Amino acid sequence: NCKCLMSVPGPCEPEDLIDGIIFAANYLGSTQLLSERNPSKNIRMMQAQEAVSRVKTSEGDSQALTEVDLFISTQRIKVLNADTQETMMDHALRTISYIADIGNIVVLMARRRMPRSASQDCIETTPGAQEGKKQYKMICHVFESEDAQLIAQSIGQAFSVAYQEFLRANGINPEDLSQKEYSDIINTQEMYNDDLIHFSNSENCKELQLEKQKGEILGVVIVESGWGSILPTVILANMMNGGPAARSGKLSIGDQIMSINGTSLVGLPLATCQGIIKGLKNQTQVKLNIVSCPPVTTVLIKRPDLKYQLGFSVQNGIV
């Protein structure tokens, strides 16, 4: 009974993620944070950095690192002691809310499971607080590995493969679905992580048709989505004044570009995506699938003289 999985861009073979793959890592520690149910990606990034800071501060000089095997599959993520193979942690994939890779550090953020009768794992900030304002306990595990980026990408890919498996289990062939239909089906299932809800909401997914002159460049600047992005694709960073992209009025800085003319950009290197965009020069029509992301703020910094520094630095696309 061949599943014939569609190709899901990423470092792993989709079939391998169903059985599970293993990465070697060092376990540095865990910490617990309080978080709203659906914080923005920027807040998630800050939470991940806070978790790393806490764990590193509490590390004693004499503390020996625990070597672990990180098991990743479309069902769950497990952490096994490398020597004894004893299970140290076991999280269903759908409870993972965020993954961040910062250099050789991986932060895995998981929701605490809550019974329907709002348990102590959920703390209301004010009486009668709305769902979004409740504070939930988030457990953050911190690991060190040379494969930090591969681990983060593999977990992101596991979500995509799990979606396909879910659709097939319900008798739906993912190849027969348009992106909107695919998104609508995912959106009806409260089954995977909070950050993907934004990508699953069909109101945020748009299919755009851009008109341009033959020989004219599209007029966009793209950057990588930054560390920890659970759907690794490129982000629209700027548009050329008067270019086809800007003229269309359909795009916003911060939009994540999922595909161009039917070619998925998810998981592709930035240089490859830039090459695909350059290859559009002789096209007169360009079809884009994008996910609208929260508004981007433009900041104008004034300084009295060029000898003064701007006062910020950028690392991996994060200020």
Largest sheet, if any? 8 strands, antiparallel
Q: Topology as H/E string? A: HEHEEEEEEEHHHEEEHEEHE
Class per helix and strand makeup: alpha+beta
**What value does the average pLDDT take?**
77
CATH topology of the domain at 14-113 and 134-169: PH-domain like
GO cellular component, one term: plasma membrane
GO molecular function, one term: amyloid-beta binding
Domain PDZ: 207-292
Organism: Nyctiprogne leucopyga
Topology of this protein?
Elements: H1 14-19, E1 21-35, H2 41-58, E2 66-72, E3 76-81, E4 87-92, E5 96-102, E6 105-111, E7 122-123, E8 135-144, H3 148-169, H4 179-187, H5 194-200, E9 205-211, E10 220-224, E11 234-239, H6 244-248, E12 256-260, E13 263-264, H7 270-278, E14 285-291
Antiparallel strand pairs: 1-2, 1-8, 2-3, 3-4, 5-6, 6-8, 7-8, 9-14, 10-11, 11-12, 12-13, 12-14
Write out key terms for the chains shown.
7 helices; amyloid-beta binding; 24% helix; Pdz3 Domain; single chain; PH-domain like; six-stranded antiparallel β-sheet; alpha+beta; APBA2 protein; 319 residues; phosphoprotein
Describe it for me?
The protein has 319 residues and is α+β, with helices and mostly antiparallel strands. Among the domains are: 14-113 and 134-169, PH-domain like; 206-291, Pdz3 Domain, CATH 2.30.42. Helix content is 24%, strand content 29%. The protein is built from 7 helices and 14 strands. The chain has helices at residues 14-19, 41-58, 148-169, 179-187, 194-200, 244-248, 270-278; strands at 21-35, 66-72, 76-81, 87-92, 96-102, 105-111, 122-123, 135-144, 205-211, 220-224, 234-239, 256-260, 263-264, 285-291. Strands 1, 2, 3, 4, 5, 6, 7 and 8 form an 8-stranded antiparallel beta sheet that branches. Strands 9, 10, 11, 12, 13 and 14 form a 6-stranded antiparallel beta sheet that branches. The longest helix is centred in the middle third of the chain and has 22 residues, at 148-169. The protein is globular, with a radius of gyration of 21 Å. The model is unreliable at 115-119 and 187-194 (pLDDT under 50).
